[in-house]
Design a protein that fits this description.
Blueprint (H helix, E strand, L loop, with lengths): L8 E3 L2 H9 L6 E5 L8 H4 L2 E3 L6 H6 L4 E5 L4 H9 L4 E4 L4 H14 L3 H22 L6 E8 L2 E3 L2 H9 L3 E2 L2 H4 L11 H7 L3 E4 L8 H5 L8 H4 L3 E3 L2 H4 L4 H24 L10 H9 L6 E2 L5 H10 L2 E5 L10 E4 L1 H7 L8
Helix pairs in contact: 5-6, 7-13
């Protein structure tokens, strides 16, 4: 980079565009990704020079940028072409909320607007802390976030974190740390077994069709499907790791969870259950480890135990729920049956 701060910047993803606008540094932008939609005026103010994994290199070079801002290993080929052409490039590669905040501060430093960037980042940090505090101690709906539908892909790191901040509990938190989408592929049966209370879907720009989600074989057993709690969150709000996710995206998640969270808050506390009757007797036969075939569970109790979250499917015989499926007792069930007893290690 021969000029500092750079006067001509090309942004190949949305989050840096939005950040520069929020910093009041938008006049430096001379080219943007075709997916840039925030703020709304960017569509008419800035020429488009790229998709996500492809770019018009001659068009970028014709803009004579001092700096090009890119994101992720998926743009490595574009970056290599630009570097070979002598262009200065800064590549971001963050996948969590801390990375979003660091990106804001870094963009500020690159355009000599550190103080403005620090103020912006601190504002988001305060907002996240306030929302997390408001959710603390309240019931947490179990959330499955679907980033893609063919195959099923669960939510990436910052999405999982924002679900938690908004008051939910990601049913696949262990997958959220995986940067690559291929490492977050989940089996339909795994979602059924996870029994989410709410399904949030954002199919990378493709329109979400809740009826298609609900019609998947066996998914009628999922509480979110049974209670019609399938909510689309628009991709520009949540799938770009930038300011929009920390503001509008977080608000959209909280709005989607609020009806159930409020209902659970208002509901009278349930008595300890199952502690008596046939449900307790049946539950005592279900193992904590391994599994028992569904045919050995009283059919009148099976659905009730699943809905209450006292058992879960761990061995699936075919795509639809079957009496040959295997079931296992959940930690919550063990705690209800044997209060005060610590699990063996």
């Amino acid at each position: 980079m021969r000029r500092f701060p750079p006067e001509r910047i090309v942004c190949l993803t949305e989050e840096t565009v939005e950040t520069l606008y929020l910093l009041g540094e938008q006049d430096r932008i001379v080219g943007v990704s075709g997916y840039a939609v925030w703020p709304a005026q960017v569509r008419r103010e800035k020429p488009r020079v790229s998709a996500f994994t492809s770019a018009d290199i001659p068009k970028i070079l014709a803009l004579a940028p001092d700096l090009v801002l890119t994101f992720s290993d998926l743009q490595a080929g574009i970056v290599a072409d630009l570097i070979r052409a002598g262009v200065a490039v800064h590549a971001f590669n963050h996948r969590d909320v801390a990375g979003v905040l660091a990106m804001i501060r870094t963009v500020g430093a690159l355009v000599d607007a550190r103080d403005k960037a620090e103020t912006l980042a601190l504002g988001y940090e305060d907002r996240l802390a306030q929302m997390a505090a408001e959710a603390r101690g309240r019931p947490r709906p179990r959330v499955y976030f679907e980033e893609w539908d063919e195959p099923l892909i669960s939510g990436i790191g910052w999405v999982s974190e924002l679900v938690r901040v908004a008051g939910g509990e990601d049913v696949f938190p262990e997958l959220a740390a995986q940067a690559a989408a291929k490492d977050r592929i989940v089996a339909p049966e795994a979602v059924v077994a996870a029994a989410p209370d709410v399904i949030l879907a954002s199919w990378c720009g493709k329109k979400v069709v809740p009826a298609r989600i609900a019609a998947r074989p066996g998914w009628d057993a999922i509480p979110a499907v049974r209670e019609n709690r399938i909510v689309e969150i628009k991709s520009p709000l949540i799938l770009q790791p930038g300011p929009a996710a920390l503001s509008d995206g977080l608000d959209a998640i909280r709005q989607a969870l609020a009806p159930l969270t409020n209902a659970l808050d208002a509901a009278p506390p349930r008595p300890p259950w199952p502690l008596s009757g046939r449900h307790r007797a049946v539950l005592l036969k279900v193992p904590d480890e391994g599994w028992i075939e569904g045919s050995r569970i009283d059919g009148r109790c099976l659905d009730v135990l699943l809905r209450r979250g006292w058992i879960r499917r761990v061995h699936v015989d075919g795509r639809r729920q079957s009496r040959r499926d295997g079931y296992q007792r959940t930690p919550a069930a063990r705690a209800a049956l044997f209060p005060g007893v610590q699990p063996t290690t």
